[in-house]
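Worked Example 4.2. Read the sequence first, then its structure tokens.
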Amino acid sequence: MSEHKPVVVTDGPLSGPVIGAASPRPVIVRTYSAGVHFGYLVRHAGKEVELERSRRIWRWFGASTLSEIASVGLDLERSKVAAPVSIVLTEAIEIIECEPRAVACLESAKWVA
């Protein structure tokens, strides 16, 4: 397992110190051209976002919006969520913090090619 890096948010709606954060925060990131990702926010500066354990959400069912996915998750049987990777996204246009219920759902998604 990789060692957690401190969360550094230098710009945007999630800027400022992360008081008492033991590890990066789970978020959904919508990008201009690289799709939608669930992962753990390591760094955010302008439109650039670094995620660890990022899982691209290729398609989803069971939620109408990304906000709903971040709140309650999605239908795991019909949705397609990729295996986790570390990634730097250069055109982030939306960052949504995830609720524990959604995190549990998205973490349990199985990648089936």
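Now turn to a second chain, presented in exactly the same format:
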Amino acid sequence: MLKPTGPIPPGGERPIGEIVSDLVDEGKAYARAEFNVVKTIAASKANGLKAPLTLLAAALFVGMAALNALAVAVFILFALAMRPLFAALLAFVLIAGLAGLLGWLGVQKLRKL
């Protein structure tokens, strides 16, 4: 990154302003190069994560469908033993309670960090 300078003034030394200007230019060029390296590394890692994250998102949607099927099965099981309205309320309370318990446990684990 060193630039050839013009003719050296009498006395054999470059002016301090020119030296500082060159130093600032070289610092800017170094910072840009480092930023480009970091940007390239981040892009490479992001490209490597596309397929796994897509599969995880698909697994999440399939898991949600399975949870809905389980909720319907719980409702039908309760509906065999009682009126459908009470079966729906009982299934809702049980599943919402489970969700609340899992959320509470998650918050407690986060607070320990």
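Notes for the reader: The chain is about 85% helix and 0% strand. Helices lie at 16-81, 84-112.
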